[in-house]
Write a sequence for this structure.
């Protein structure tokens, strides 16, 4: 039987292994492991590729968010608005600085921050909004930036899943006051361990981030502010430099896989992701909404197909945020999506036959489940607003 896992990093490594080994060897020979030319090279290459003036490499995507928030002076008494449907780090970093995360609803068709709900969360204490370009598709940046501008709020983009994505022809990382990337091994540009980057057009913010990543130093042993050790290792930067030339090709392959899924699954009971014509996502995940999500995941597992649930529990209902006082039902759209979402394998090493096999299995399942469950009202209830726009395959 065919088997398809969520990722095939070893298959990818077979393609670029020699280049990565050479890059690692060069760093080992130099015996310089902290910052250095490989880090500067990565910063310059990504700033150029992503059309942003300044790039500051840091120790993880989480530290990129933390450092960006610190650079904006976010702290106790401040509120930061963000979606509840995201990875923990988006909110964890806000809370670690003593500020209050305020969770806003998402658009159930795109899983990204709903601009209207964002505006409803603004209070006199709101300082910033963090938009998350979830699964590799941009949030509605024009609407969000317009609202943020009216209220004088800063915009941080959590682009950990969206390197190379475009919105109205613009790079995701070029939108907002600061954008944050992650090089966690499973991301679209994954490294050999932890890593991240902050991107900004603002020279002053970039300077502050540079200083924050080395304990707030202006020069050696002179500390202008309190920062942290947020440096990216030289070895990791060297590997990323070698891998960067594969990024666009790999992202294109992810898009081709997604388009094939959306075409094949259009007649099944699962709802494929909505991609409007001004969006060019990079499919960090290909996520569908379905009836009997856990049963579908089990069924696919029995056919040797990996799946993922991003995310099973929304952040506003996590035990650690209990002090914020959100009850079950307070963000019904987000909670409903958490119960229905399932990510299918979508990575550069997949063949068309892999996609056909998975889609066929989903059809088998959906044929069965429609007999058991003829009234599929979920589609209308959650995605009934789906009138404009096109799907990924259009
Ligand atoms: C991966 C990820 C992060 C955190 O990045 P790390 O490099 O793992 O610290 C933050 N936000 C989102 C949406 C992510 O997917």
């Amino acid at each position: 039987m065919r088997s398809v896992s969520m990722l095939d990093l070893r298959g990818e490594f077979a393609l670029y292994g020699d280049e990565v080994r050479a890059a690692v060897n060069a760093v080992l020979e130099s015996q310089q492991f902290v910052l250095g030319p490989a880090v500067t090279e990565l910063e310059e290459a990504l700033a150029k590729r992503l059309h942003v003036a300044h790039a500051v490499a840091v120790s993880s995507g989480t530290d990129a968010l933390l450092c960006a928030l610190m650079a904006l002076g976010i702290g106790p008494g401040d509120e930061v608005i963000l979606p509840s449907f995201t990875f923990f780090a988006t909110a964890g970093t806000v809370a670690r600085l003593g500020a209050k995360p305020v969770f806003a609803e998402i658009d159930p068709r795109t899983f990204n921050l709903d601009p209207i709900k964002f505006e409803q969360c603004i209070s006199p204490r709101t300082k910033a909004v963090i938009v998350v370009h979830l699964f590799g598709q941009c949030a509605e940046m024009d609407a969000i930036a317009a609202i943020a501008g009216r209220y004088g709020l800063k915009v941080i983009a959590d682009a950990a899943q969206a390197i190379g994505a475009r919105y109205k022809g613009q790079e995701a990382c070029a939108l907002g006051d600061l954008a944050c990337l992650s090089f966690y091994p499973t991301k679209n540009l994954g490294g050999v361990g932890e890593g991240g980057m902050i991107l900004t057009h603002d020279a002053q913010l970039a300077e502050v981030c540079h200083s924050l990543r080395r304990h707030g130093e202006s020069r050696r042993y002179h500390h202008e502010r309190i920062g942290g050790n947020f440096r990216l290792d030289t070895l990791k930067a060297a590997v990323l430099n070698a891998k960067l030339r594969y990024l666009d090709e790999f992202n294109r392959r992810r898009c081709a896989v997604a388009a094939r899924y959306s075409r094949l699954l259009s007649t099944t009971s699962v709802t494929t992701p909505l991609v409007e014509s001004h969006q060019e996502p990079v499919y960090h995940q290909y996520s569908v909404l379905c009836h009997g999500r856990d049963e579908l995941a089990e069924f696919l597992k029995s056919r040797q197909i990996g799946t993922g649930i991003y995310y099973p529990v929304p952040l506003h209902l996590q035990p650690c945020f209990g002090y914020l006082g959100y009850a079950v039902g307070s963000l019904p759209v987000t909670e409903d999506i958490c119960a229905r979402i399932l990510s299918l394998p979508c990575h550069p090493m997949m063949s068309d036959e892999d996609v056909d096999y998975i889609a066929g299995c989903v059809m088998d399942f959906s044929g069965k489940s429609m007999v058991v469950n003829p009234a599929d009202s979920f589609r209308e209830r959650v995605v009934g607003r789906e009138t404009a726009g096109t799907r990924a395959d259009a």
Notes: Residues 26 and 242 are 12 Å apart (CA to CA). The chain has 13 helices and 14 strands. The first strand starts at residue 54 and ends at 58.
